[in-house]
Amino acid sequence: MCCDLKRRFLLLYATQKGQAKAIAEExxxxxxxxxxxADMHCISEMDKYNxxxxxxxxxxxxxxxxxxxxxxxxxxxxxxxxDKNLPPxxxxxxxxxxxxxxxxxxxxxxxxxxxxxxxLQELGAQHFYDTGLADDCVGLELVxxxxxxxxxxxxxxxxxxxxxxxxxxxxVSAVSSALSAAACVGHELNLSSEIQxxxxxxxxxxxxxxSSQKPVDINLLASARDTEPSLVHSVPPISQAALNIPVLPxxxxxxxxxxxxxxxxxxxxxxxxxxxxxxxxxxxVQLTREDAIKTxxxxxxxIANTAFDYQxxxxxxxVCPNSVSEVEELLHVLGLSERGECFxxxxxxxxxxxxxxxxxxxxxxxxxxxxxxxxxxxxxxxPKKAFLRALVExxxxxxxxxxLQELxxxxGNSDYTRxxxxxxxxxxxxxxxxxxxxxSLNLLIEHLPKLQARFYSVSSSNLYxxxxxxxxxxxxxxxACPTRPVSRKGVCTGWLAELVAPLLHPNKNxxxxxxxxxxxxxxxxxxxxxxxxxxxxxxSVPFVMVGPGTGIAPFxxxxxxxxxxxxxHTDWHFGETWLFFGCRHHDRDYLFKQLRCFLENGTLTHLKxxxxxxxxxxxxxxxxxxxxxxxxxxxxxxxxLLKDSGYFYVCGDKKHMADGVSGAVVDILSxxxxxxxLEAMKMLAxxxxxxxxxxxxxx
Length: 699
Description:
Helix content: 25-40%
Radius of gyration: 28 Å
CATH superfamily of the domain at 543-697: Nucleotide-binding domain of ferredoxin-NADP reductase (FNR) module
């Protein structure tokens, strides 16, 4: 390194599911190798840093959640910097670089990062490095890796300029030489030379110095017919390449086994997002026929004896466990089947080299091993490259070790995307595919993220059904594939379906209570209010709802609420309501045929339904998708949006529906306003900005 003392920079991260934190930790690890010291903090820990007095460069890694909101950990920070009383030069002293994480499947891509970036600029802060926006839709690493590579040169320039300004030029020739060297490569925005040439010397372990190793010819270990790459097999050029792999993350967790005496904490103590309520499931209905492609369930919860409150359009979260069978299999693979009920004490390893190492907040200090694997860790998480790098050290077979190195290397980006990320491979899939990999328990706790509660849209109205909350979901199915030899269900939807089976099939081998009814199951929930996806505050304003499949869920709550308001306020004027619903088959998955009741009592003015897989006597004559039906009513939709200043709501699948709907709306606006598509897109953007075109979508 070109300087004796390591140069400090402040590293802040704001994370919802752990990705921003993992990237910040990678920056922190790499910083030392480049002669820097990262002072890393969660952005919520505002007592540990002070931007108003910060003299060193600041690096921010921030994700986006919900409909373009900053993550929960950044809410207080964002509220603080959005204070309108702050002067425009409040952060004039601040130099920063920002890396935003998002998903272009959603409308407000990287909006959490963009919001912070824009506000810091408004308050006078200066970029020392261009903002990076990483897209989880195509792979965060495509932007994250080169952004981190370029960060080190940008930081060097900042410190060299600082040194000049402070008059610390006791070695002018050395500084000039460094500036010249920096200028030579200044045009290379994605600096990678230092990290690519970094020799990995992890405590003298030659196996970690992959860059200088000759590649293992794993083709000799594979069948001669394996000419196509797979999760476990590579082909040239990567199979013959020298690899650049991440720095081995230092281990920092120590796990001590204790006896089997004691009591596990309740899973609700692991929730930091809000107050948790344990509520009974009072009703379960299968909305689809047995031969439908997807199984849709409606569950009703009794919230009467709680302080839980909601509005139609809100979402809430369900606290769910991992699959019992998957936990048992993981214990078996780890060789810990006999110790699942043993209590373990988790603490930070003494003398760890990990900077700022702390006890994970989502891991109890004392609980059973099975509790940790069931309620605390996302064992279905797609392994990050840092995890793959750590697993290399626990793999004994040379061919398997080499393949894991390839998958976490720079050269293996496309293989990682194809065989890990896009295939939704999880830890168990990896351990099945690489049987000589036997990771330690502490490694799992270090690298597996927190098990997240799952979000669901409310499908009811507290005004219409006081003390009740309903929601609708498809039971998610992941079929077996080459990278995953067994099929599996969604973590939460599979658990819920199994939990309510006695309610769905009360006479099928279930134990009943004395009264003869199935036992009541309880689940833990907490609120996740939606600040925008609500009915218009003025009931006279018309609105359009588009919700195919389970996307209809919040609109059932809208219509229930509207019906009750009409009953209670007969003197009010109510605007017209449109609902566009679609499903595959009329007789298999038309989820709410009682929509006709809302139509008959006047709550719903117009109901338009389409069926994508049903044939008709005039094959092809009927529209198959909601976006096609929208185009048939172009004049009416345009009138609601333009003349009547109405609202437009979309709920459901992002990739296969919501984009098509927004495209249809652009076409409608272009046609009815007699403008080109660019002007129509501007109008749609204005509708979004004024919160009159609202989406509740998922990918």
